[in-house]
Amino acid sequence: MPYAIDRGYRFPEPALLLGPKLLERLQGYIATWLACRPLWIGRVDHDPPHNYPSPQLWRDFLSSGLTTQSQGAASKGKDSKKKGPTAAEKRKAVIRDLFGDDVLETQGDLLTNPPQHLTQRITWELFELGFHYELRDLNRYLARKYWADDLIGHKQLLHSIFPGEAGLVMWSEQFLEDNYGMWNNTLIGVLPYLEKFHELICTWDDAPPLLIVPLMPDSFTDTKCWEVMHSATAFYVQTFFCHFGRPPIVPHSIPL
């Protein structure tokens, strides 16, 4: 069976943390996400669900405060006499299937009053996580022949786009204090990561001619860097939209 792309969101859409006008709601979103974050990252990395959550399901989950106790209490109430589950109960059942009891039970220890800088860094990380794993899944679909022929080699190529030795998951390290990889402030710093990204997407169908020509250090100028980045970005965004039916999650600058 060919690898099929799931159009759901691997991680909460970062806009969820930018939208709440009430501080209490934002605190609830952040607290719930931090409680389930390690387990969910591990699951996405090693044992992805069959269907990823939609933005609405993520919103329901982050704002629910659902626990095993509250689920059990609800089943003993007046609604237990109903013939079938309500829409809210169906959503909770889906949430339970997705995140599991271990994740839901961790929500009792909630963070309150998060500082603004922490909120900014959590939002930045969600952009990074979304980009990493959406790129992985899109590439596994478009370059499935390469993955089938050389699983280890193509996985290493994917991981080489991002600094660090832990693949796509780098979140146990100290938070970065400067932009890195393809977003480095120097051409020397950008080149190795941009070349790997360039190498990865040039295996996709209809890649622009500019992305097929290897990048050479002696001709890699500011102008060349901008041209390749512009072409690669436009190609990635359009290709992603064609297969997911929505815009991709894209990286952002580190909040300093």
Task: Give the gist of this structure.
It is built from eleven helices and no strands.
Account of the 3D structure:
Residues 69-88 are annotated as: Disordered. The longest helix has 27 residues, at 116-142. The chain folds into two domains: 1-114, no CATH class; 115-256, no CATH class. Helix content is 58%, strand content 0%. It is globular and about 65 Å long. The chain starts with 14 loop residues before the first helix and ends in a 12-residue tail after the last helix. Mean pLDDT is 78; it is low at 66-78 and 102-110. It is an all-alpha fold.
What topology emerges from the helices and strands here?
Elements: H1 15-18, H2 23-46, H3 55-64, H4 68-75, H5 87-105, H6 116-142, H7 144-149, H8 151-159, H9 187-201, H10 209-212, H11 222-244
Helix pairs in contact: 2-3, 2-5, 9-11
* Main sheet overview: none
The N- to C-terminal Cα distance equals: 45 Å
The helical percent reads 55-70%
Q: What is the overall pLDDT average?
A: 78
Structural class: mainly alpha
Roughly how many Å is the radius of gyration?
Answer: 21 Å
Number of helices: 11
Number of strands: 0
- How many structural domains are formed by the residues? 2
Give the strand content.
under 5%
Element-by-element helix/strand order: HHHHHHHHHHH
Task: Please state the overall shape, judged from the principal axes of the Cα atoms.
Answer: globular
Give start-end ranges of low-pLDDT stretches: 66-78, 102-110
